[in-house]
Amino acid sequence: MAEADPLVLVVDDDESVCRALARLLRSAGHAVRVFASAGEFRANADLDGRPCCLLLDVELPDINGLELQHEVGEIVPIIFISGHGDIPMTVHAMKAGACDFLPKPVRDDDLLRAVDHALERARQTHTKRCEANTLRQRFERLTRREREVMALVVTGRLNKQVASDLGTAEKTIKAHRARVMEKMEVTSLAQLVHLVDKVDLFSASDTRLSR
């Protein structure tokens, strides 16, 4: 299976529930990994390699599912499944970003629909994360002076203005600018500005290079 193929992660301490969920999900064409506790999930789940969503029971033997949500909810879309859920618990989970909260026993159609929705969100997030990582890798190839030139150029300053700001010759700025365009793999200033707007390439620790 390719690295980017989506994966459904299931965390539930009820072995029969895990088997039933895994069987249903696999019959629908999903790849599945099952964990019996939050601790097992923490130790073995890979949330960065490919798009994934999490089917999470509320009542677990080690920690509450809502506590695990606080740890990974911003990384992976979560669908809660619980036989003990109530309205306050559901509201709390949804306000914290859960995709859905399904009561046990879960209807097959409801579960598969929720998983499809969560995986679509995961795909979008994964694509954005991969794009951001690619842009940061390109940015890391720039020298410090090239980053300084880039930070000024994307504000709309002309080459001669950048040269004055940095105390160097305009032809030197033109050369730096050309290398920036090459290393960032863009062909126009508009594309370069779009990349900077898309991802915060200039770190907070390098504030003098920020826009």
From TrEMBL:
4-aspartylphosphate sites (modified residues): D57
PROSITE patterns linked to this entry: HTH_LUXR_2, RESPONSE_REGULATORY
KW Cytoplasm (keyword) present: no
Alphabetic keyword roster: DNA-binding, Phosphoprotein, Transcription, Transcription regulation
Domain Response regulatory residues, every copy: 7-119
Domain of life of the native organism: Bacteria
Residue span(s) of domain HTH luxR-type: 135-200
Any Pfam family hit: GerE
Full protein name: Response regulator protein TodT
Species lineage: Bacteria, Pseudomonadati, Pseudomonadota, Betaproteobacteria, Burkholderiales
Gene field: todT
